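If you are new to this repository, start here. Below is one unmodified record pulled from the training split, so you can see the exact layout before writing a loader.
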Amino acid sequence: MTLDLTTYRAHALSHAQALGLFEQVLGHEPVSAPGSGLSYALWVKGIRPIPARSGLDVVTVRLELTGRVFLPADTQPEDGVDVAVTGAVDGLMAAYSGDFELGGTVANVDLLGAHGPGLGAEFGYARFDSTTYRVATLTVPLIINDAWTEAP
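And here is the target side for that same chain:
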């Protein structure tokens, strides 16, 4: 087997699109300002074998995705910026929890962190050009059984 990032990412992004909250949903980390409304982007952070779940001839892996919600920090009313970003994170985390196997494409979303940091979000700011964005950076950890075959 091989890792099928296109499929995993498509399922994860479909949840963001289905929420109807985002002006745009991207399958990559933006290198320029993502827009004036709520935006969501998803990209790969890391891939690691999981010894405790691997067998004698196959390897289970943890594919960790980073998701980021963006909203210009000067969006009016400014008191609503955190409300909007937190609401988007809540919707995303509920969707990933509710589709625990991403449509049967992964063993599971590592919600509680059995094999590293679990599903979660950290809030902060990011600057693109002259615009400061309020952001929430999600950890979306996916467990994929039998991703690689070990050769003797």
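Two things worth knowing about this chain: The mean pLDDT is 96. The radius of gyration is 17 Å.
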